[in-house]
Amino acid sequence: MTDSNRPLRVAVVGAGPAGIYASDILSKADLTATGFDGVGIDLFERLPAPFGLVRYGVAPDHPRIKQIIVALEKVLGRGDVRLLTNVDFGTDVTLEELRHHYDAVVFSTGSIKDATLAIPGVEAPESYGAADFVSWYDGHPDYPREWPLEAETVAVLGAGNVALDVARVLAKHADDLLPTEIPANVYEGLKSSKVKDVHVFARRGPAQAKFSPLELRELGHVPDVDVIVDPEDFEFDEGSMEAIAKSNQTKQVVKTLTDWTLKEGESSASRRLHLHFLHAPVEVLTTEDGHVRGLRTERTRLTGDTSVEGTGDFHEWDVQAVYRAVGYFGSPLEGVPFDELKGVISNHEGRVLAPGGETVEGVYCTGWIKRGPVGLIGHTKSDASETVKHLLADAAALQRAEEPDPQTILDFLRGKGVDVLTWSDWEVLDAHERSLGEPHGRQRVKVVSREDMIKHSRGTV
To answer: pLDDT confidence of 2, banded at 50, 70, 90?
Structure first.
């Protein structure tokens, strides 16, 4: 094989939905005009398992959403995209080293950190980022095995599906999560939880909530948990009415919330989930020794265009823990231009941009690390298509890799002592997790620690 008729070699970094969709689209692309004979794709993942956000960001009691993995498995199981897991970009391999082996590199590393919330007291030990809590209950190998669940009354800040997931998992009885894939340590932690009341606070009105209608309705069916919505928290301005008229999703969310305001009688459940609107968090209240003792919010009012302003009316809530679900934020990657303000790789439509604004040849991005943590998982397909289109348009002019042979990158990594895992290794781990769940009628039980994941992938346990 000469350099003139070899495949285009592409490294995709991050094996979540964004990276898998980009790999799938690229694998089916017509490369006739690029000067390359087909394409060879290596999909890198720093964890021992693929699927990113679907495996480690979706609540365990949402198997419908987790079914996206079935479609992603079909892509990786075809064999035309090579999966290389347990490889950490920046530690095990650098951008310069990838460019030595590949003609182009696509970053799809997502956004996994919590966005900041700049209010006093937010650094208290019982003030938690929702992303960290999600990673714990989803059995992420890089997070502690235990989670402090001593609080009886908890505040969750945010009005999106992550806030809803956090609130639901906190309020739900652990036994009701047993049919899911939650690991044993998560079940034991939630079983010992002392929570009785979970308060969700949104700074805008019901029509501005970013809940999915189905997820919101599911709250009303959680056993032994009452959903409580105060009619005083309902306000609709001109922009709200326009949003309700234009969006069936908004209309459904508002209807569900309105129905809950009409419920009569005292709560009979042992746990309660309260949804508060038009309350902006202004301070996490702490004791003299710095522990959470409450939350101060300011009542807001809609200004006519769906935004809000403060009213000067403050409320204090007796809570012992606060969870911040105010959005995700991307993490910088070594040697890759990063926009610190937006939390994304600096780019234009997926082409990575240097600080001066010029295009970085052969380097691209897709998914949340490209556009920020907005949109549902399915939205990453169109995002990936845009990036791949630009990569293919640039392909003929790219500086070609010095060592494009697929074996050389494996030799390089293993020569550095990197324990690279492949798709067949994942299949072994997948079968083991399923075998753990089968006797209990569960689809799987996750293996949590990285060390155990690697051992089971290798079949050395």
So the answer is: very low
Per-residue b or e along 182-191, where b marks 16 or more CB atoms closer than 10 Å to that residue's CB:
bbebbbebbe
CA–CA separation, 310 and 297 (whole Å): 10
CB under 8 Å to 316, separation ≥6 — which residues? 285, 294, 295, 296
Rounded to 10 deg, the angle between the 17-27 and 380-394 helix axes is 50
Contact call for residues 222 and 228 (beta carbons, < 8 A): no
Each residue's pLDDT tens digit, 294-320: 999 999 999 988 899 999 999 999 999
Token pair for residue 225?
Answer: 């948990």
List the Cα angle 75/79/80 in 5-degree steps.
Answer: 80
What is the Cα–Cα distance from 15 to 47, expressed in whole angstroms? 9
State both tokens at 348.
């234009």
Closest CA to 332 of 318, 320, 342: 342
> Do 453 and 447 meet the contact criterion of CB atoms below 8 Å apart?
yes
Residue 160 CB neighbours (<10 A): 18
CATH dotted code for 3-112+330-419: 3.40.50.720
* Superfamily name with CATH number, domain 113-328: FAD/NAD(P)-binding domain (3.50.50.60)
**Residue 328: is its pLDDT beyond 80?**
yes
Render 27-38 in DSSP notation, one character per residue.
Answer: HT---GGGT-SS
Is the pTM above the cut of 0.85? yes
Q: Are 247 and 206 in contact (CB under 8 A)?
A: no
Coil, strand or helix at 70: helix
Residues 6 or more apart in contact with residue 208 via CB below 8 angstroms:
159, 202, 240, 243, 306
Size of the chain, expressed as the number of residues it contains: 461
Task: Tell me the pLDDT tens digit for each residue of 397-435.
Answer: 999 999 999 999 999 999 999 999 999 999 999 999 999
**CATH 3.40.50.720 intervals, the chain:** 3-112+330-419
Write the CB contacts of 121 (distance below 8 Å, at least 6 apart in sequence).
127, 283, 284, 285, 286, 292
Give the DSSP per-residue string, 217-267.
HHHTTSTTEEEEE-GGG----HHHHHHHHH-HHHHHHHHHHHHHHT--S--
DSSP helix/strand/coil, 205: coil
